[in-house]
Amino acid sequence: MGEARHPVDEVASEVAGALLPGAGAITGWMSSGVRQEWQRLASRALKAAQAISGRSREDLEEIFEHDPTLTPLYMRVLWAAGMNGHDETLRAMGAVLGDAVRASDGGESESVDDADQALVAMSGLTPRHFRALRFLCGNPMRDPAGERAAKGNSGWVAEQVAEALGLTYDRAAWCLSDLAGTGLVATANGGVSATAYYWATDLGEAVVQASDSLDAT
Q1: Which residue, 182, 96, 193, 186, is CA-closest to 150?
Q2: Is-contact 174 103, C-beta < 8 A?
Q3: How far apart are CA 131 and CA 157, in angstroms?
């Protein structure tokens, strides 16, 4: 007898076929271990979506099944679960997915579009990117009085991040630029030298918080 297929296998195959013609057949010969890892990563992403949206898993599954604006975002996360393989990336994508659900509940269609764009950009993020994001979240800039500076008024430059994380300047700058493209980090040019500086956005901080909460469970 053939191996019984888990429902996630069917979903993954359909998603793969929809996003990349011919890929649906690829999932058919994946080992059970590979499919289980795909399922595990997808599950981690959904837990992050629950944490951010405040919805139960059952609620989310029903929403993704019936809401045509959110279904494509869910498909992106499922696809990334099979193609990226980085735990923290999937959790971050799940958090953005949950934020999109919350925005949809509030009728914020532009925010849902922003989340879709962010998910496209996030699918290629690696642990190095999240080291940079965690550094920005854990080390907010301070004003002269020692209080946390308002976002946008100051931030970290690539040289500082490179030194703090033990990266080359080019790698740090690359990570920060990628993060800015996802909406997890914001950037501006400051001073006469017009050097770019970076800070974590509210969404970036929410993503790290959701990831930390999952680590604690």
Answers
A1: 186
A2: no
A3: 15
Identify the H or E element spanning 98: helix 87-105
Q: Which two structure tokens, joined as six digits, stand for 41? A: 């990563």
Place of tokens 């998603």: 15
**Residue that has been written with the tokens 């080359």 in this structure:** 168
Q: Is 60 left (phi over 0), alpha (psi -120 to 50) or beta?
A: alpha
pTM over 0.70: no
pLDDT one-digit tens code per residue, 11-26: 544 544 444 444 444 4
Q: Any residues with CB less than 8 A from the CB of 192 and at least 6 apart, and which?
A: none
Q: How far apart (Å, rounded) are the C-alpha atoms in residues 105 and 66?
A: 14
List, as one string, the DSSP characters of 113-151.
HHHHHHHHHHTT--HHHHHHHHHHHHS--B-TTSSBPPB
The tokens describing 209, both together, are 């918080």
- 157 dihedral zone (left: phi>0; alpha: psi -120 to 50; beta): beta
Whole-number Å distance between alpha carbons of 100 and 138: 25
For residue 19, the model assigns a pLDDT of 41
Query: Are the beta carbons of 38 and 8 closer than 8 angstroms?
Result: yes
